[in-house]
Amino acid sequence: MTEHLPPVISSNQKVADYGSTTSANLAKNQHSQSLPTGPTARPQRSPSFLQLNASAGGHRYSRMSHNKLHSDSQQPLERLEYFLNVLNQMCIGFITIYISYLTLQTGLAGTGLHAWLVTIGFSFFMAEGVMVHYGGNVLTNSYKRTTKTTIHWILLTLGGGCGAAGALIKMIQKGFLLKSTHGRLGLTAFILCLLAMSSGLAALCSARVKKLITPLLNKAFHNFLGFACFVIALVTQYYGYETGYFTHRTETDLQILMKCLTLVSLVLSSYGPMKGLYHKIKSISSQF
């Protein structure tokens, strides 16, 4: 009786034995003729080998590891952005609520109406409007882009309207003779607000004006004007805490606190618009 030998396997070939039973191998085996027959007979197991593709598995493992490391490195940054956005929302809420309380207590007339309108317009509506498309915004990050665009237009229309109206009231009171830093910055913000709203209307109707200016360039110009208007408006708000209306009604510590909160809100609210403006400028420069 001949001895049954296993298949010859080279030393550099990686194999795996799955112990499968094949009837074809039993039929070809000469030793199968001497196996017992009958109800107690059982088929003999012979090893079957399958070659492994090590390179494919290694490539798949390394790619998965790279993606996992990339996602793990992104998670702390996203959490930091969410935390800073929540902090910004708290600053915006405190400024809006306190100024509304102060102006409603003294009466919405003259300077009180001016202070309330510019705060609601610039510090609240415009600050929220410029952050709508920001991915780290906890209030709008789950919305679709079309929904974000609609919210953006509504908030900036309300913010620009209220802010421009509030600035116009004070300019009429002063006879357009604005000599203080607060007044001159307010006039600049008023002009930029009108220009930003005009460019925003052109960006909304970009299909009609694309013969004069490309939609991408028009939107980049609109973003720049809107961002400049927002920055100057909040700097104007900062100097507004030094005016007699505010200093006669609040303590020095509260004035410092309001200045700090306004600057923090300005910095944190500017991250998203600056990031979007950078990508638009980069896209425009790549076309030339």
TrEMBL record:
It is found in: Membrane. Pfam families: Cytochrom_B561 (PF03188). Residues 27-47 are annotated as: Disordered. Residues 83-277 form the Cytochrome b561 domain. GO terms for cellular component: membrane. The chain crosses the membrane at residues 82-101, 113-132, 153-173, 185-209, 221-241, 256-274. GO terms for molecular function: metal ion binding; transmembrane ascorbate ferrireductase activity; transmembrane monodehydroascorbate reductase activity. Its EC number is 7.2.1.3. Its cofactor is heme b. InterPro entries: CYB561D1/2, Cyt_b561/ferric_Rdtase_TM. Its main location: membrane. It is a multi-pass membrane protein. It comes from the Eukaryota. Keywords: Electron transport, Heme, Iron, Membrane, Metal-binding, Transmembrane, Transmembrane helix, Transport. PANTHER family: ASCORBATE FERRIREDUCTASE (TRANSMEMBRANE), OS05G0565100 PROTEIN. This is ascorbate ferrireductase (transmembrane). It comes from Drosophila hydei. The lineage of its organism: Eukaryota, Metazoa, Ecdysozoa, Arthropoda, Hexapoda.
